[in-house]
Amino acid sequence: MLAQELRSSKAFAIFVVGLAIFTDTLLLNLILPMLPYALHSRIGLPESDVQRWNSILLASYGGALIPGCQIVALVIFGWIGDWTLNHRTPFMFGLALLGAGTLCFALGKTLPMLLAARILQGSSSAVVFTIGYALLFDVVGGEHIGQAMGYTATAMSIGLLVGPIMGGSLYEYGGYIHVFIPAFVLIPIEVVLRMMIPDSKRASGKKSMSASHQEEECPINYGATAGVLTRELTSSPVSCNENSTQENLEIALAEEVRSLLPSDNPRKNASLSLLRSARFLVAITCLFMLNGIGTGFDAVLPAYVKDEFGLNSLQAASFFLIMGLPMLLGPLAGALSDKYGPKCLAISGLIIAFPSLFLLRFITSTTTFPEAKLGILLFGVGFSFLLALPSLMTEVSTVAEEMERTNPGIFGKHGAYSQAYGLMNSAFAAGSFVGPLYAGFVREGSGWPAMTLLMSVLSLVMTTFVLWRTGSSARLRDGMESTTGT
Fold first, then answer.
1. pTM beyond 0.85, yes or no
2. Are 152 and 23 within 8 A, CB to CB?
């Protein structure tokens, strides 16, 4: 009984989803600092091709060589998450994809093998983030989803912090194959925890509702004449449970009539309904740009500090540590987003991002104390991500919840939270695809200053979008309405 209560608790759901996101992020980031070095020493690429293929391999995580591969997978898994009402099976499938991708990367000695590994890892992330966030929303509800996402953001940031440092250290002191030891330690633990995930509340509710209807079932016939539905009770005595009430009969009748009515099936249009919302579009567009900037640094930073300052893989990894440190405050940022609304925090983060990104263009080997200045500015970029990311992710769930509350049934009986998170993570996937490519090729063609200037311009564009359309918190709006009402 105690074990069942623990499995159904909010803390357990947050822990399992957080650990899944940590594992996924850690295994993806193990390779970041060592990949430019391994492409030359293990694959045999000439130094002139390392930046290009480093960017292509990292981009293949988001879109692979088949454009939209992971993006389509995210929407599909979002649809599965809404319809199956069972999070355990797709979660386990995602773990299998992660294990296969990691094994391919560990054993791969050719570019096609490494590309296949990144595609598998990207598909795993599609499952983890889409199904994981839907599970969180089922358990914690909309009121506390910002704080829950803050915890998952912390788990992700720990993966971002530990992954590069661990990967750089293992590669520097052990070799290529040693980098993947953490993967084969964490995956068995993940198997046990994901098997413990209970059915969602929606699934349990559906089962109990079906059982209740079976107990109270009455023989009722429905017909339709000239487009008007009518109900006809059988002439034989009606045998119903004594506890059945008129209200139960009306509910059963309403459900039966709804099933007979012609409908364009709102579930089929759930994604389109979300995409028609300007607020939803702004949120996922900004998430796309933010992730594009973050993954752009993933592709360029190790190669840049190697070429510009002559640093090794472990030293390159230290800059990822500095950039990810602020994300440890994710739960605090999520709680502030719940209280004050996503707009205030998102704008604050984007205002910090602009000067941090703009000043990076002046960091070269001729700058005094270049490594120290680079670290300070990257910390500023990481702090801007801390404020903006949880806020915009909360906005996604808030928009879906408000659309359902304003127009009950707009998404059908299954809801659309998994699809909302699927679309959100599609934006992340698109950023993961575009970011490494534009950053890598701009740096290769026009240099580091042009790349960081472009990133700073993107932060200004995002600030304009958020000012235009991002909403405030429900608590803040309720307080304002009650104040005006009095």
1. no
2. no
